[in-house]
Specification:
By secondary structure, the protein is α/β, with parallel strands linked by helices. It contains 11 helices and 10 strands. The protein has a single domain, classed as 2-enoyl-CoA Hydratase, Chain A, domain 1, CATH 3.90.226. A hairpin with a 2-residue loop joins strand 1 and strand 2. The radius of gyration is 18 Å and the shape is globular.
Length: 275
């Protein structure tokens, strides 16, 4: 494993530290290894006095597919948590996801996302945790949890304070896909651009990055603290309960059927859609 290519690449350019998710075999799913490398990249950027902001982006046509269902199934459900030692927080399972999202929200430097592909389930939690996000016309979004016998439990902590409530109800319940324009309308992303491909989203981000490069480190940290105060209160209040809910759902028979059906590319037993 030590010789395996990294799943998260870091590149620095004039105060912006770009972390690129590069795990195409599972559509940049949140495996324990990818999450660990993402932590390392975020921590390195936080320590770097020359870094003004962190930019998350991706290779391939998927920004993040959410939980690694194959890994979750092999570990006996998403309630399983791996640690680096007795003092370490988990990097997998519901508590691991909660820790990752809170790390992004609490990072003293702005975290941005540049999305030119698909985002599903837990991947939408990453967007909710980011301070600013730009999505192109090739992006699509869906809360697929309800179709798997799950619920968007942990990711609700950064998302529900930002989302239009009626839109959240619709998309949480139906699992419908929606585009970047709708994502911007409901508050999931900051800006939707009509320009195609990564170049288009990069062009839309350029003035935002310029503004961040002009800002002082203290000004950025304190301004971010202000806008994220309510989100952090939500983490303080709800993390334990939502992590338990998520673990319970992942361990249920219905979720096992949903995840198995997804991996086998078939409808789950409860589906009533026309064939």
């Amino acid at each position: 494993m030590a010789d395996a290519p990294p799943l998260v690449h870091r590149a620095d350019d004039r105060g912006i530290s770009t972390l690129t998710l590069d795990s195409p075999h599972n559509r940049n799913a949140l495996s324990a290894r990818l999450v660990t490398e993402l932590y390392e990249g975020l921590a390195a950027a936080a320590r770097d006095d020359g870094t003004r902001a962190v930019l998350l982006t991706h290779t391939g046509n998927t920004f993040c597919a959410g939980a690694d269902l194959a890994e979750a199934g092999a570990a006996g459900g998403a309630g399983a948590a791996s640690t680096a030692g007795p003092e370490a927080a988990p990097v997998s399972g519901p508590l691991g996801l909660a820790r990752l999202l809170r790390t992004i929200v609490e990072l003293p430097k702005p975290v941005l996302a540049m999305v030119s592909g698909h985002v599903r389930a837990g991947g939408l939690g990453l967007l909710g945790a980011c301070d600013i996000s730009v999505a192109g016309p090739g992006a699509s979004f869906a809360f697929t949890e309800s179709r798997l016998g799950l619920a968007p439990a942990v990711i609700s902590m950064p998302l529900l304070p930002r989302l239009d409530p009626r839109a959240a109800a619709r998309y949480y319940l139906t699992g419908e896909r929606f585009d970047a324009v709708e994502a911007a309308r409901i508050g999931l992303v900051t800006l939707a651009t009509a320009e195609e491909g990564a170049d288009g989203t990069a062009a839309a981000l350029a003035p935002i990055l310029d503004g961040l490069r002009r800002a002082s480190p203290q000004g950025l940290a304190e301004s971010k603290r202000l806008v994220n105060a309510e989100v952090l209160r939500t983490f303080d209040r709800d993390t334990d309960d939502l992590a338990k809910q998520s673990a319970r759902l992942f361990a249920s028979e219905e979720a096992r059927e949903g995840m198995t059906a997804f991996l086998e590319r078939r409808d789950p037993a409860w589906s009533q859609r026309p064939r």
